[in-house]
Amino acid sequence: MSSKLFVGNLSFKTTENELQDAFAAYGTVLEANLMMDRATGRPRGFGFITMSTPEEAQAAIDALSGSSLDGRALTVNVAKPREERSGGGGGGGRREYSGGSGGGGGGRNRY
Question: I want to staple 51 with a disulfide (CB 3.0 to 4.6 A). Which of 36, 47, 57, 86 is the partner?
């Protein structure tokens, strides 16, 4: 088991220090990170905690999952490795057509 935990359903008022303090009761917290929205700089409502051992991480999961912090019931579980994102979606297909003349506007004015 990993010692890195996902913590979800956080209040937007919760600080990294408050998060770290809540988990410190169950072992040594090596790192506490709240995820922030890049565009607004506001919290996204989840974060990650790294405990010093898998046993401490399990103790924190057992004690804090479903418990209340800043009026919200926490979701606490082992963090999953980040999946590789594909370039799909809106503009992903355009890369396939790199190079070429660009085909547009310039030809119209010649006639």
Answer: 57
pLDDT mean across residues, the chain: 85
Sequence-distant (6+) residues with CB within 8 A of 95 are: 87
Q: Note the Cα 42 to chain centre separation in Å.
A: 13
Question: In the predicted model, what is the mean pLDDT of residues 5-25?
Answer: 96
The residues near 74 (Cβ < 8 Å, ≥ 6 apart) are 7, 8, 9, 10, 64, 65, 66, 67, 68
pTM for the whole thing? Answer: 0.73
Q: What is the pLDDT of residues 83-99, one digit of tens each?
A: 877 766 655 544 454 45
| Alpha-carbon distances of 47 from 12, 78, 105, rounded to whole Å | 11, 12, 48
DSSP state of 13: T
